Amino acid sequence: MIALTSEPIDVTSALYELQSAQAGAIDIFLGVVRDNTQQRPVDRLEYEAYDRMAIGEMQKIADDANQRWPLLRCLIIHRKGTLQIGEIAVLIGVATAHRADAFEACRYIIDTIKQTVPIWKKEIFMDGEIWVNAHP
Amino acid sequence: MIALTSEPIDVTSALYELQSAQAGAIDIFLGVVRDNTQQRPVDRLEYEAYDRMAIGEMQKIADDANQRWPLLRCLIIHRKGTLQIGEIAVLIGVATAHRADAFEACRYIIDTIKQTVPIWKKEIFMDGEIWVNAHP
Amino acid sequence: MNSTVSVLLFGITRDLTGQSTVSVSLPANARVAELLNQLHQNYPALASIRSLLVAVNGEYAEADQLVHQNDEIALIPPVSGG
Amino acid sequence: MNSTVSVLLFGITRDLTGQSTVSVSLPANARVAELLNQLHQNYPALASIRSLLVAVNGEYAEADQLVHQNDEIALIPPVSGG
Hints:
The complex is a heterotetramer, with two copies of chain A and two copies of chain C. By secondary structure, chain A is an alpha+beta fold. Helix content of chain A is about 30%, strand content about 40%. In chain A, strands 3, 4, 6, 8 and 9 form a five-stranded antiparallel beta sheet that branches. In chain A, strands 1-5-7-2 form a four-stranded mixed beta sheet, with helices on both faces. In chain A, helix 2 (about 50-70) runs antiparallel to helix 3. The termini of chain A are far apart. The relative contact order of chain A is 0.26. Chain C is α+β, with helices and mostly antiparallel strands. Chain C has a single domain (about 5-75), classed as Beta-grasp domain (Ubiquitin-like (UB roll)), CATH 3.10.20.30. In chain C, a hairpin with a 2-residue loop joins strand 3 (about 55) and strand 4. The interface of A and B includes residues 35 and 99 of A. Chains C, D: It holds the Pfam family ThiS.
């Protein structure tokens, strides 16, 4: 299941989605808003997405992961809008029979999201703001 | 935080324990009771622990992980007693600034638990039972 | 004969141009590379961005892909999701 | 002079012996290896287990570690947690 949402991400309902009687391992990765970037205090983040394409690219990543590992369940939920410190920006959840597959698929999915999915993050500091990765 | 418990493991309160303003990444691994072992249908599992030593060994693993990776939070909760299909047998949770550390530490912890912590699992089938790993 | 295409802008490119959609006039049978050149001419501030890709109809496009007037075209600055 | 030590049993070893604690009589200054030998003599069924370790006071013990009468001693069959 793939989602792009303006609402807070609910880990409990994600876990519910991930359950399967055949699952022996579930790995859940959360990308969270932290209070600093290279020691500079962050006030909040703003995420913007090219919705249609972001969903399409996330679906491609899930399809790839399903090809590469025997996944029982695969969940990718990305938040957009304004996020405060401690809020969940992205949740990746994978259920598999055995744990190696869960860890590898989960890691592959988050690494690839950061490379290909058209979502942009603006870090807002007390004294300025910056679009992450935009400049050389 | 290390725990060995007879109660169901609560992912929501684990997530609460894992939160930290400095955390950018949280990885949560769940070991779950699955409905079969090598295609043989499982009815339920029974976990037994040498409590004192199990807690000591889990603490050592957490201490090792804290030495090897910059962990902000580290949580190991192992269940004991009778577990039904779909129930969580173990939860490993790690919060770090960056994701590579979270994945690596989480994987290290679960891999090492399976090697050193004195906890024993009996698989109960419809027509028999077996202590896992006990026999050659 | 020139045609006009609309280009969706996001993130840094939207901030630099002050617009979330811009129109670009292109010759017939123009390709992605020409679209990018024209955008750089029209909005020199785009040069400050580390890299720019183009998506056509929701898919990343190669430099030699043709651009049609009814395509949904978007400029994709370096992504930073997750 | 012999002394008697108590050994905690878990999992497969408890099932095979039908007991959760067994007493073993050992010579003075006995080591872990001798304790294991004596247990195997007393409970031949233990031979069916893939491996057996001994914990003394909650820590894995080497074969040459001395066993004292007041130690908390446990027999550790192959673990299968997680």
